[in-house]
Structures are given as C-alpha cells and as structure tokens.
User: What shape does this take?
Amino acid sequence: MSEVYAARRERLRERCAAGGSAAALVSRPANVRYLAGAAPHGAVLLLGRDTDLLLHAGPLAGRPENERPDESLPTQVLPGTDGDPAVAAADLAASHGVDSLALEEHHLTVARHRAIGSVAPRLRLTDLGGAVEQLRLVKDEEEIGCLRIAAEIADQALSELLESILVGRTERHLALELERRLVDHGADGPAFPTSVGTGPNSGRGGHRPTDRRVEEGDFLSVCLGAAYRGYCCEIGRTFVIGTSPAEWQIELYDLVFAAQRAGREALAPGAACRDVDRAVRQVLDSAGYAEGLPHLTGHGVGLENDEDPQLAPSAMGKLDACVPVTVEPGVHLPGRGGVRIDDTLVVRPEADGGPELLTITTKELLAL
Assistant: This one.
C-alpha cells in the first residue's frame, strides 16, 4: 500500500504547486489517514516539495498493523503531550526555507490558525480548501473492497437480529445488540450511532433509540453502519412486527420503495447529483409527501460516513464512476410511524452492469 499513499500525496503535491504553494499542512483526521495510511490522535501531515513528514504527539507502539501509517513515510514524535503538531509542522516548514504553506482552514480553529501564524510570521499562509476531499471522491478498488466488507458485516448483523425475538425489547437494547454484532463480525465499530425506531418513532431520520418496547403491529425501522479499516458503509431497512401489515403500512412502504428504486436507477457516471435527488423526490412529491422530506436523499461514504457528494436539490456537480453513495428516502407520519430504506451503492457505468449494490439485505416488507 505504500505506493498507493505515495501516489495520493504526489497528486496533492501537484495541486499545491499549481496553486502556488510550496508546501501543505493536512490536519483533518480523515484526510491524514487517506494520505498517510493512519491518523494517530492529533497527527498532521506536512507535505513538502520533495519529502513529507507525519507529526504526532504520541508513540505508535502497540497500534494494530492496519492502524499504522505508511512505513515509507517519515514520522516525528513531539516531546511531551502539550505541543501542537500543526504549530510544530509550520515552524519546521519555515525553518527549511518554505515561503508559503497551504492550510485546511475549514478544519483549523481560529486559535490554532493564529498560533501557526505567530510561530512562523514570515510564512505566507494560504487555504488548501477541499483539495484532499476532492481526491477522496473517487475510490480505488482497494477502498471499494473495504466498503464491500463493511457492507457484508452490516448485512450479517442485521440478518441475525431479524432471526431473534423482537417483541418486548426496547429500541435501545436492539441498537446496542446490533453494534455488538458489528464488532463480533470484524468491524472497527459502528460507523455512526445505530438508529432503531418502533411504532410512532419508525421512519424518523437520525432517531435516537429510546426505552420504547417493540409491540405487535409496529413498523420497526433500523439504520446502522459498519466501519472496516476506516471505511464506512450504511444500510437502513423497515419491517413490520407480528401479524400481516396493515393496508396503510403496505401503501407507505411501496411508495418509499419506489422512490428508493428511482434513485438507485438514476445513479450513473455523469448524472447530476441534483437529478438523482429529484428522481427520489418526484415519487414522494406525487403522492403528497413534499412537506417534511429530509434536506438530502443520499450522500457519499468512505473514510467518513457522510462526505461528498451530496444528493440534494441544491447540490452541484456530477457523479463519477467508482463513487460510493447512499440512497436513503424516508417518510414519517407523526404519531403513526414511517418507512426508511437505505442502501450503499457504487456508481458504475452501464457497460459494467450499472450501480453496484453493496448492502444486499432484502427490501421485501417482512413481517417478523
């Protein structure tokens, strides 16, 4: 993998040179991990003209092999625990005659930015912007492989839960069990706090599990994600508890399923992000659910669970091949409950079979 990380750093170096910066300081943890292979707590990456350096405050000893940085990348441990690696990196760059340094200003606090400026007052500070995030958009096959494994783990955890007795158990208990199963099957941990909603809580995006117990006739909506080697995958499903679903539950489920299918079918290289969002919303709007819809219907995933691109009405840009995204419409009826269906897919051209579905748990409306 060393050559992969070196190639990523070289692409960033070329962008910096084109923008007139002799060096760059990467501080956002996900970006450091993308370029260095790992991001020890507080670590920053100093990207120079010819050489790069990872600065951090703590030792690497004892870290698992897959959480250690690129072995070809020089590292420097700061003495003590009070130093700021970002400030130390700027000081080091200035001492080596660098005249300009690009910073991730969207990540740095004002106080940290001022500290960097004070330690190297002659250094011209510029904004690196989202250059690393842009590099991260299109995933290589190694990254997609990690996402596939994360999806398999999430699918397995969910399928095992569905085989257990659910009536009488609380949302909180079910969420904790799902997160334990993720780790049991090899995940780093949950990609985000697991959401379990029952009855009137079902179908609510970002619902925090409560002590409400599962009852016969409830909708049960689950949204969980697994992180594997840092890469995050997301899945959401809705089921009915006990007897056959009521007519209103079938109608609502079929509507959300149709909206989700429209979004999945709209995924293609060159498709505008807002058009994918529009495909989902048109189905729900036509049924009278224009109000109360989430501000986006999907987003990118990778080293962070919610990253670019965003599938939203105001989203700019178009999709590329090998970009993983979620498609996750939902409708919630206050006091009754609702439906949420969420998949992670990789954008692929039609010649390669179209979008690759990573989360394969059935989307049939099951009565559990």
